[in-house]
Amino acid sequence: MKELPKLELHLHLEGAAPPAFIRGLAAEKSVNLSGIFDARGAYAYRDFVDFLRVYEAACTVLQTPQDFYRLTRAVLEASSAEGVIYTEAFLSPDFCGGRDLDAWRDYLAAMTEAAADAEAADGIVMRGIVTCIRHFGPEAARETARCAAETAGAFITGFGIAGDEMKGAPKDFAYAFDMAREAELQLTAHAGEWGGARSVRDAVRDLGVTRIGHGVQAIEDPALLEELAEAGITLEVCPGSNVALGVYPNWRAHPIERLRKAGVPVTVSTDDPPFFHTTMSGEYENLAQSFGWELPDFAAITYAALDAAFCDTATREALRTRLAPTFGEFT
Ligand code: ADE
Ligand code: ZN
Questions:
Q1: Checking CA distances to 22, which of 37, 60, 87, 224 falls within 20 to 30 Å?
Q2: Cα(46)–Cα(54) distance, rounded to whole angstroms?
Q3: Cα dist from 60 to 11, 147, 287, 291, whole Å
Q4: 3-state SS assignment for residue 96
Q5: Interhelix angle for 174-182 vs 138-151, to 10°?
Q6: In a 3-state reduction of DSSP, which class is residue 275?
């Protein structure tokens, strides 16, 4: 599966940090992070809220733009080895200087440089989606949106929201999303991972997003599925994440195949791969095993991702050219 060219639309940059990378930084900075790893050195968490705690603890050792340069290079190198040729990473001003605009510019410069170096080395193309964090509240989200709006351009192409979906409602974040939209950023929101079909409905209506992070619980509402299909709202589905966090008990129970059959544009991503012991190829292997997916199915999710990617036309067409030798006959 590694050889198939892949597009990934939903990857949290800090969430893609291997535990050894975080341990290395912790040692360099003399930070004690022993509480977030298990005996084998993997990230250890009990449930989704505990996962967010561990995630934020890991982020405490990411302290300088240079740390983010190294993280971005490491993440893109790992993604490229999985066959990923285009990735959209969620970037968080919260963890890059506490949402201070000048600090954010410095961190962003380091990540942009790392992305350019990775593209030169491996051909992998990266774009950034600035992301606010729901449980940090609407005021913090506005500051994050300001960072996004002030740095929107060729590299920062989107704005989104992650974090604890059970805290607050999408409409609380409408102002932040309005700021991002005015800066011509494209929009996505985590919804329907924990908050049911209603949370997807609310995110589409109140935030005006064209993509939904996860969105899998839309499966509970056939009328919503029709609306998503009709409007072409693309789901950034992360099945391995959902199974690891217990949204679904196992791969066979995951609704990805039913979502696709309902005509909803579906893509596949890893979310926070080391936390969930997954990779893009691992996701593909599980999809093949659980649902019998073959080349035409992987072509369909890849072209759905190409259509929904937050990039300009030239980038999209260059990617299409790179996909054609593998998937061209299925377009
Ligand atoms: N941040 C990182 N991973 C996340 C997830 N799966 N859901 C919500 N927020 C996140
Ligand atoms: Zn996510």
A1: 87
A2: 10
A3: 19, 20, 34, 39
A4: coil
A5: 10
A6: coil
pTM above 0.90, yes or no: yes
Give the tokens for residue 260: 């696709």
Mean pLDDT, consecutive 10-residue stretches, the chain (331 aa), reads 97 98 97 94 97 98 98 98 98 98 98 98 98 98 98 98 96 98 98 98 98 98 98 98 98 98 98 98 98 98 98 98 94 80
Distance 272 CA to ligand 2 centre (A): 7
- What's the CA gap between 146 and 83, in Å, rounded? 34
CATH superfamily, region 6-17+65-324:
Metal-dependent hydrolases (3.20.20.140)
Alpha-carbon distance of 60 to 9, in angstroms, equals: 25
Instruction: Give residue 314's pLDDT.
Output: 98
The residues pairing with 129 across neighbouring beta strands, listed in sequence order, are 90, 158
Q: Which residue numbers are catalytic?
A: 193
The residue whose CB lies within 8 Å of the most ligand 1 atoms, and thus the one to mutate among 51, 94, 161, is 51
Q: For the chain, which residues make up each domain, given as ranges?
A: 6-17+65-324, 18-61
